[in-house]
Design brief:
Elements: H1 15-28, E1 34-35, H2 47-58, H3 71-85, E2 94-97, H4 99-111, E3 117-122, H5 127-134, E4 138-143, H6 154-160, E5 165-171, H7 183-193, E6 199-203, E7 229-234, E8 247-250, H8 256-266, H9 272-283, H10 285-288, H11 290-309, E9 325-329, H12 337-348, E10 350-351, E11 353-354, E12 365-369, H13 374-394
Parallel strand pairs: 1-10, 3-4, 3-5, 5-6, 6-7
Antiparallel strand pairs: 2-8, 7-8, 9-12, 11-12
Helix pairs in contact: 2-9, 3-9, 4-5, 11-13
Length: 396
């Protein structure tokens, strides 16, 4: 009998997708569910980007593009990073990808061999753990703890590194915790790896979405990591383009060729009209101000949820400074994260993502996505207030 490849033995269905499927079923039966599940902005793609895509189609951008994307798109990426991040790259360091997810797959599968070690955050969106295992690599994890404001424990990280360590994954701003690593924290990481042959895979998909004056810093900003860092970024989150499946990689020049060749065999390039729209999205973001408008609205929801959650007896959270997630502490309930998510949706019709699906450090937490509307945020808080009273009463 034919069997799947052994490398897929540990592949699991996404808990986030499965939860959303359950919500579809509950809503179909008449339930009024408040969803805090998907990391999907509740805004439409900005009209100027849609118009640019339509124009590209009308102008005949319907043929094969280069695997890495056309020069104007790659230059737009470089201009964005110089303008907004103070980092200079050249177009021959950029490769277009099918979203940040395929970018992660491209980067890890290009460089990890069986027996290599990759070190990832815990908690973390689990795609990196799964891809590492598909590669046959040993996946190690460094802890992001609430009591440390979700910064990297540099001593712990240093203790995980061996002569088999090939890559360290960094995600800042973070999914699921909403934390942003400080420049000091990243500088300390750079000191650890500066004399080691270790790649840094820097997932920067949320870097436009930060608050309270916090500015995200790329590992590539440090001399100790500049020539080791491969950046992953894209359009889904800040530009509300989740369905466009569009991202990119920025790599040190010496690693470009294997990434380029592998990208060609994986997806053979991104649709040409999408690449044209992406260039316009980057070049004209400041002109239209749509990213900033969405960021400000996310900020309004963030502050509201943070303040209201911390008024409750059984729930609390650290104030996130990036992305659009709150990692709510539910340890006082006495339930596991899985038990709490089941209980809150069945009894109060609020859907959250269990923290345990992001790693062992996620146990005792649940993730709320404030990519949902302010109306939903207020509705959810009212229901959480009821749940909080019920939990207190149950304890007598």
């Amino acid at each position: 009998m034919l069997k799947k490849a052994d490398r897929l033995n540990e592949l699991e269905f996404s808990r986030i997708r499965m939860t959303s499927k359950l919500m579809d079923e509950l809503e179909a039966s008449g339930a009024d569910i408040v969803r805090f599940t998907y990391g999907q902005p509740d805004f439409p793609t900005p009209q100027y980007i849609v118009d640019a895509c339509k124009k590209a189609l009308d102008d005949g951008f319907t043929t094969y593009p280069d695997y890495c994307g056309p020069l104007n798109f790659r230059q737009a990426v470089c201009d964005k990073y110089e303008r907004e991040n103070g980092l200079k790259f050249t177009p021959d360091q950029v490769i277009s990808t099918c979203g940040a997810a395929q970018a992660a797959y491209l980067v890890l599968t290009t460089f990890l061999n069986p027996g290599d070690e990759v070190i990832i955050p815990n908690p973390m969106y689990n795609i990196y753990k799964i891809i590492g295992k598909i590669c046959g690599a040993t996946v190690k994890e460094y802890s992001l703890k609430e009591e440390n404001n979700f910064q990297i424990d540099v001593e712990e990280l240093a203790g995980l590194i061996t002569d088999k360590t090939k890559m360290i994954v960094i995600c800042s701003p973070s999914n699921p915790v909403g934390g942003v690593l400080t420049a000091e924290n990243l500088e300390a990481v750079g000191e650890i790896v500066k004399d080691k042959d270790i790649f840094i895979c820097s997932d920067e998909i949320y870097e436009r979405l930060t608050y309270d004056g916090v500015k995200p810093v790329s590992p590539a900003a440090f001399d100790t990591m500049r020539d080791k860092t491969i950046i992953i970024n894209g359009f889904s989150k800040a530009f509300a383009m989740t369905g466009w499946r569009f991202g990119y990689v920025i790599t040190p020049a010496e690693f470009w060729e294997p990434l380029y060749l592998h990208a060609g065999h994986q997806v053979s390039g991104i649709p040409a009209f999408v690449l044209e729209a992406g260039a316009v999205a980057l070049n004209e973001a400041d002109k239209y101000g749509t990213v900033e408008m969405m960021r400000q609205e996310f900020d309004r929801r963030r502050v509201y949820l943070y303040e209201e959650i911390n008024k409750l007896e059984n729930f609390s959270c650290v104030k996130p400074t990036g992305a659009f997630y709150i990692f709510m502490n539910i340890k006082k309930t006495g339930m596991t994260s899985d038990e709490f998510c089941d209980w809150i949706v069945k009894n109060y019709s609020v859907a959250m993502i269990t923290g345990s699906c992001f790693g062992t450090e996620g146990e005792g937490f649940v993730r709320l996505s404030y990519a949902s509307s302010m109306e939903d945020c207020k509705k959810a808080i009212a229901r959480l207030q009821e749940a909080d009273k019920a939990l207190t009463a149950m304890r007598g």
